[in-house]
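Morning, I've got a small favour to ask if you have a moment. I owe you a coffee for this, so here goes:

…
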Amino acid sequence: MSAKNTLKQRSRRRSKKRKCKSQRRRVKIFKNGKAAKEGISPLVEKYWFQRYCLFSKYDEGIKMDEEGWFSVTPEEIAIRHAERCTDKVVIDSFSGVGGNAIQFAKKCCHVIAIDIDPEKVALAMNNAKGDIVFLSPPWGGPSYKNIQTFTLDLLKPRDGYTMFQIAQAITPNIIMFLPRNVDPNQVEELSWLSSPPLDLEIEPNYVHNNLKGVTVYFGGIVAAPHPRSMFDCNLYRKEIIKLHC
């Protein structure tokens, strides 16, 4: 064997050793690092280090599966896609964990997100957290008018307390559109489901001087917060009394 070939073999062995050491070092970092605590596998670890490029709000409850890490569209690119679709109806045919769908929702009239994997759909729903939840549940048909005091348990498909608590898991900023004869005491009780209690504002809604319903605002979207917004509630109670008379 020539000296030249011997040197080549030694060089290859050194290169392999360096590569193995590098891999062991990376695995060690993975095992001891924050990525390991989040259950991130070595296969997608490099994408985890880019997590804020994928979702700028990653620390606010974003969830991913392994495939999602390497298939989600980086947020900056998804924003550019959405800007081309302003005020349109978009069908996201391969929505995955929601990278594009979330940005489309900020710019478009309506977004239909589709994925064959139910787990991906669940992850996308988790990641697409909004700033405000609007609740306008069915009131049970025109017969609601015949009820003197409409209670929250009459709402469909679940009672008002349950729906409100589900909304709270997403954001404290909630809007509810409710019947004109809803029980104002129960409406106030909803604000006490949070700790500390949420600011509350009740807005009577009129069409042609007829009271049609009430909109209740909770949290940071209350127009002019004041202690418990009792003034608004008292005004609404007067409207209810007039209605019943």
About this structure: Strands lie at 89-92, 110-113, 133-135, 174-179, 200-207, 210-218. The radius of gyration is 27 Å. The chain has two domains: 42-127, 133-244. Residues 19-32, 226-232, 240-245 have pLDDT under 50 and may be disordered.
